[in-house]
Amino acid sequence: MIAVDAMSPPTVESPRLVDQLLRDRPAMIARIQRGTELAAIMRTMCLTIAIAMAIVGAALGSYRGGIQVAFAAIKLPLVLLGTAALSAPALSAIGTALGRRSRVAVDLALVMSALAFGSLLLAACTPLVMLGRAMEMPYHRMILLVVFMFAAAGVASLRMIVRALAAEAAPGWRTSVVGLCTVFALVGGQLAWSLRPYLVRPRAQDIVFVHDIEGSLLDSIETVIDSAQGNYSRSEAPL
Fold first, then answer.
1. Contact 187, 50 (CB under 8 A)
2. Which of 144, 86, 93, 73 has its CA nearest to residue 115?
3. Residue 1: helix, strand or coil by DSSP?
4. What's the CA gap between 119 and 106, in Å, rounded?
5. What CA–CA distance (Å, rounded) separates 192 from 153?
6. N-term to C-term CA, the chain
7. By the 8 A CB rule, do 63 and 202 touch?
8. Which of 59, 146, 161, 185 is exposed most, by the fewest CB atoms within 10 A?
């Protein structure tokens, strides 16, 4: 059934799917749960994530400028698409273990649609990044702004998935939500951490595509909060 759907041409235009995602998410959820147009939905949401996150990445990269604009525009779509690819099978596996009917394609379409919605929210917030850049907002405060933006978008994405699972009312859906949230946070956070940097200090001399792993993500967040308050662990603040 999935193979036939993937080979058949889409009957729903991509702009209409994106419009429905923004204006009527319950209808989008119902469409996904019926299992109709799944191939068209996944193609549209994949393209939406790629374009929206490339815009967000370019905005973050502009804080430093130069090649960092392209680097961040390439890496951020990979983070969200990788999160969708790894989180959807986890949702299906957890649900199946709890007695829910296994529908991998439906779960993948749902997760990708939720992440596409979050990516559109982030794209809508890029003027805040550009405003901070124009105002020469300090580096660590800019990082906190970006973390807040991504956290808000992540909550909105998870809310859409929770709404879909609640409407489905399958056995153990609450446990599935908890498991998905855990996987979602771990996978998304680790992918984002592994592919950093996205936001680079304006005075940085060397720009690399990916940094070496140093410490954990939680350690980095704690360091950023301290640095934003002027508390540095080193003898002097970095350039």
1. no
2. 86
3. coil
4. 20
5. 14
6. 57
7. yes
8. 185
Q: Is 128 exposed, middle or buried (CB count within 10 Å of its CB: 0-12, 13-18, 19+)? A: middle
For residues 75 and 57, is the Cβ–Cβ distance under 8 A?
Answer: yes
d(CA 177, CA 92): 11
3 state SS of 18: helix
- The pLDDT tens digits for 111-124 are 999 999 999 999 99
Q: Over the stretch 40-55, which tens digit does the pLDDT of each residue have?
A: 999 999 999 999 999 9
- Tell me the pLDDT of the chain (239 aa) as tens digits: 444 444 444 444 688 999 999 999 999 999 999 988 899 999 999 999 999 999 999 999 999 988 999 999 999 999 999 988 888 888 888 888 877 777 889 999 999 999 999 999 999 999 999 999 899 899 889 989 998 999 899 899 989 998 998 888 777 778 888 888 888 778 887 788 788 888 888 887 778 887 766 655 666 666 666 665 666 555 444 44
In 125-172, where does DSSP find H-type helix?
Answer: 126-134, 139-168
User: How long, in residues, is the chain?
Assistant: 239
Cis amide prior to 197 (ω within 30 degrees):
yes
- Using N-to-C axis directions, what is the helix angle for 139-168 and 173-194, rounded to 10°? 150
Amino acid sitting at position 131? L
d(CA 167, CA 28): 13
